[in-house]
UniProtKB/TrEMBL annotation:
This is Myo-inositol 2-dehydrogenase. Residues 142-252 form the GFO/IDH/MocA-like oxidoreductase domain. Residues 6-124 form the Gfo/Idh/MocA-like oxidoreductase N-terminal domain. The lineage of its organism: Bacteria, Bacillati, Actinomycetota, Actinomycetes, Propionibacteriales. It comes from uncultured Friedmanniella sp. It comes from the Bacteria. Keywords: Oxidoreductase. Gene3D superfamilies: Dihydrodipicolinate Reductase, domain 2, NAD(P)-binding Rossmann-like Domain.
Length: 363
């Protein structure tokens, strides 16, 4: 049996604590160190979440060397992801990064180029992909033929004092990436364009637009419609959203919490629930397997850039008031990444790509 993968976690905030709890009983990985700018917070989090003896420090590279870390788990705020991930990969360590990979597509592209330069794995934790009922939905869709339309409705009314309530597009930036990423997963493709409108109802406690509706077009003509609100009191949906998929031989629905229901030409389809870990536990399991086997995970950074680009394109559409092509968003971000890259080696990698889409394609 293989030894547990030695993990160095960076970030001891709220989500960091969730990962610390996850690592307590995870059989294939062990926490060997915790990095945070606030050492008192890090020590308290480690002690309270089951890791009282784990060393803490502010310096990622130094603590990684001292503990013999084999991988880094980045659970910092999104604004810090690029710096943390770059330092880890430069130190020769693969990285599992909490979503979103970065606050902009251009930053994502720089990190993809850094991963290519260093030869290190950079994977994004899109934890909702690992819900067992979602695995069952994908299985059912495989029996329904070509997909025509996918829709997701998301209605919640959370109170989130702090930066989220001050954002210009809180729903699209902080929440929708989960659902947009799942649409890519279910359709097995990346979108071509989007038209989006956002708004902020009069009763909203958010400063920016807390509601939005977007229609994404995919290469084979499929449409994904997303409608969401963070100020929708009463009859709330699951955090995973409420889904409906119309396909060649039937329809499937999923309420986001319970097993999906699907009917095909021969009647109701059986439900085969996934057996792997759910949410961040499933994400960590795939990361460990990828590190050990070299098999590229579904949410490797170069693929996950498309989910970030969907968010950026939706925001551009609502601000410009028209349809936005994903290709244009990627090209604009690529130009910005080349211009803004501080590391000349990273810039050289970016400039070696025949096109941004080819740079993101499988090697």
């Amino acid at each position: 049996m293989a030894e547990p993968l030695r993990i160095l976690q960076v970030g001891a905030g709220g989500m960091g604590r969730a990962w610390l709890r996850n690592l307590v009983s995870f059989p294939d990985a062990v926490l060997v160190g915790l990095v945070d700018l606030d050492l008192d917070r890090a020590r308290a989090a480690a002690a309270e979440e089951g890791h009282p003896e784990v060393p803490v420090a502010r310096d990622l590279t130094l603590l990684a060397a001292e503990t013999g870390a084999q991988a880094v788990l980045d659970v910092t705020v999104p604004e810090a992801h690029q710096a943390v991930n770059t330092e880890a990969m430069r130190a020769g360590l693969p990285v599992l990064c909490e979503k979103p990979l970065a606050g902009s597509v251009s930053q994502c592209l720089e990190m993809v180029a850094t991963a290519e330069l260093t030869g290190q794995l950079l994977m994004v934790s899109q934890s909702r992909r690992y819900w067992q009922s979602l695995v069952a939905l994908r299985d059912q869709l495989g029996q329904l033929g070509e997909i025509g339309t996918v829709s997701c409705e998301f209605f919640k009314a959370p109170r989130m004092p702090g930066f989220r309530e001050e954002m210009a597009h809180p729903l699209l930036v902080d929440m929708a990436i989960h659902h947009l990423d799942l649409a890519r997963l279910l359709l097995g493709a990346d979108p071509v364009s989007v038209y989006c409108e956002s708004a902020n109802p009069p009763w909203s406690w958010f400063a920016g637009d807390a509601a939005a509706t977007a229609v994404f077009a995919f290469p084979a003509g499929q449409r994904f419609t997303y409608t969401g609100s963070w100020v929708a009191r009463g009859l709330e949906t699951s955090w995973n959203g409420s889904w409906r998929v119309s396909a060649e031989h039937g329809t499937a629905v999923w309420d986001g919490d319970h097993p999906p229901i699907a009917f095909g030409d021969e009647g109701e389809l059986p439900v085969r629930l996934g057996t792997g870990g759910q949410e961040i536990r499933g994400s960590l399991a795939e990361f460990v397997q990828a590190v050990r086997t070299g098999v590229e995970p579904d949410t490797v950074a170069r693929r996950n850039v498309w989910s970030v680009a969907m968010v950026e394109a939706a925001i551009a559409s609502t601000e410009l008031g028209g349809r936005v092509l994903l290709e244009e968003v990627l090209e604009s971000a690529y130009v910005e990444a080349v211009r803004g890259a501080r590391d000349p080696d990273v810039r050289d990698v970016l400039q070696s790509w025949p096109s941004v889409q080819q740079g993101l394609a499988a090697r």
